[in-house]
Amino acid sequence: MNLSRSRVLLSNDDGINAPGMKVLACLARELFQEVWIVAPESEQSASSHSLTLRRPLRIRKLSKRRYSVDGTPADSVLLGVREIMKDAPPDLLISGINRGGNLGEDVTYSGTVAAAMEGTLLGIPSIALSQFFYKRENLSWGTAEAWTGRVLKIFSKFDWTPGVLMNVNFPDVPAKDVIGIEFVRQGRRKIGGDFKLGNDPRGDPYFWIGVQRNENKFRKGSDLEAIIRGAVAITPLTLDLTHSNTLRKLKGLVK
Predict the structure, then answer these.
(1) Helix (H) or strand (E) holding 98
(2) Domains, the chain
(3) Which alpha helices (DSSP H) does 32-135 contain, by range?
(4) Whose CA is closest to 150, among 122, 127, 184?
(5) pLDDT average per 10 residues of sequence, the chain (255 residues)
(6) Are the C-beta atoms of residues 118 and 37 closer than 8 Å to each other?
């Protein structure tokens, strides 16, 4: 893929005006011939791969090649490809840059990854980009800014496999301290390790799912372990969730 001659569609789950989208748009305009942005009107974090089926969706044109959708990340990509860019689909879809990592089981909840999944389902090579952080108030986009171009140039030489998307996470270290790019497997990191119980103004109880995660930071060869060491972690994800070994075992039960 020749980046300088490509048309790219950008989306995310943090919303059309998110800082990560602004960073990504600036980088993309330096690398690609044509940049289109179609993203949710408001934040849709943890919306996963949901489509809006029970109400109509609206597209709002904000400026040339920049649109918002009052729906989910998957809605935005679907309408971006099938409606806004229907005359000439994008050569590549990039989702991000997400505020926070998408590691381990995070990917099953992530709207950032879901946007890339929707692009993959539509037959478009797709990448999810996320900037990991330890403390939200100290988040810096400098590492993602410095390393996104290098990551995209690697993918430009890649013979893309249908049904596979790329999940990229940048570590929470200064750009100069990144130890390199590593290709790793999905690790173990489950969000929802704590709940907050309270009472609303009417006195009725409510539960608020917290951000605490149960995770394995030291599993060698995993995305989380690579990020902790200061590497850019890239994991190829597949839309086929079939577990081949179990399938073979089950077939062996039938005589």
Answers:
(1) strand 92-99
(2) 3-187+216-252 (3.40.1210.10)
(3) 73-79, 106-109, 111-121
(4) 127
(5) 90 95 96 96 82 94 96 96 96 95 89 96 97 89 96 91 95 96 87 77 84 64 93 95 91 84
(6) no
